[in-house]
Amino acid sequence: MSCFRCTKKSTKESKNNNTNINGNKPNHQEVNSNGNVKKELGVKKEEASKDDQLSLDAKEWNIKEEVSKDGKTNGKRAQTFTFDELAAATGNFRSDCFLGEGGFGKVYKGHLEKINQVVAIKQLDRNGCQGIREFVVEVLTLSLADHLNLVKLIGFCAEGDQRLLVYEYMPLGSLENHLHDLPPSRKALDWNTRMKIAAGAARGLEYLHEKMQPPVIYRDLKCSNILLGEGYHPKLSDFGLAKVGPSGDKTHVSTRVMGTYGYCAPDYAMTGQLTFKSDVYSFGVVLLELITGRKAIDNTKPVKEQNLVAWARPLFRDRKRFSQMVDPLLQGQYPVRGLYQALAIAAMCVQEQPNMRPVITDIVTALNYLASQKYDPQIHPVQSSRRGSSSPIGRRDDDIRQIGGNGPERD
Ligand SMILES: Nc1ncnc2c1ncn2[C@@H]1O[C@H](COP(=O)(O)OP(=O)(O)OP(=O)(O)O)[C@@H](O)[C@H]1O
Ligand SMILES: [Mg+2]
Q: Which residue intervals are annotated with compositional bias (Low complexity) in the record (predicted)?
């Protein structure tokens, strides 16, 4: 177990997750398993074509085997673009096209003449902490994937030492932008939208775990990686950390611990043994953020409340306090049964023992049901946020049982 991935946050977003698993500032250099700093990104042979450059990168980083064992891409290979085409699309990376910045580099909005499409272009920061390895894994994973809840990779540019990714443009930005540190002009997400986002994100994860061949562990599920389209349609993005899941009778893959503090499953953080249940834990954290409006890690809160899961665990045991967990920005506009069910799912996902966490398919079933139960504040009573039993919760025991046996502990 060694370094944690750099988690430089979008400059348009909060900076609170900028720590590694030990609570330290992230190491901006990647270190291999021998503890050696990886070599600088070399300028490749000028004569290499863009496609060849991707293959060279993959070979150099020994990646093809990991992500795309047989090299097949469902015949859907991402297009290549020249650097000049991408520069033209963004007015030479003009500041008013800037959308945000993460560990990989800056993201710009642009219009690509060649395909007449608005796109988001992510440019690898050569001084940044993520690099060519994540670029190649992202291209190979997304070339294999095709699902309504995964962001589409339109193409890439690999020219000299430039590496850029071209995605479909997601007009509403990231979930993080809609959940935390809202500007006064932005309305808080309502309950129905939150459940729709949770169900869609779960379907995206189910596709990676259950439908992809080979199955993939995402390793980077968090609010800033859930992008929102029209109508708040959610799509997972950023596959640079993805790993092919264990095969045969293996239960895990052993890797360096990478991810984002606050979302990383404790078992994976301790042992470096990555399983599909590591993603399920991260999903539980995102679901808790959706329900509570709190951040996975918030250093501005009192110590006991800084880690969302640690704050939530004792509350899961006391149903009288469930209503205290809900995001105050919902102003009491949520269904009590729905809240119980959503909390029960979150509680199961963030259990310490990975084998106690549900598989993603069961989470999808539960959340599809929850998202289909539309809440209408005109018809349903508005809840008090302070008292636990002010509302019609006569069948609350059934509510917990309905989604499975391992719900929050009850008194
Ligand atoms: N396809 C896209 N469409 C619209 N906006 C996007 C798109 N991709 C990224 N963005 C914007 O750019 C910001 C930065 O994204 P990026 O994925 O580089 O970093 P991050 O997710 O914030 O951090 P990290 O590097 O830890 O994943 C996002 O928060 C989002 O606002
Ligand atoms: Mg991201």
A: 16-26, 384-393
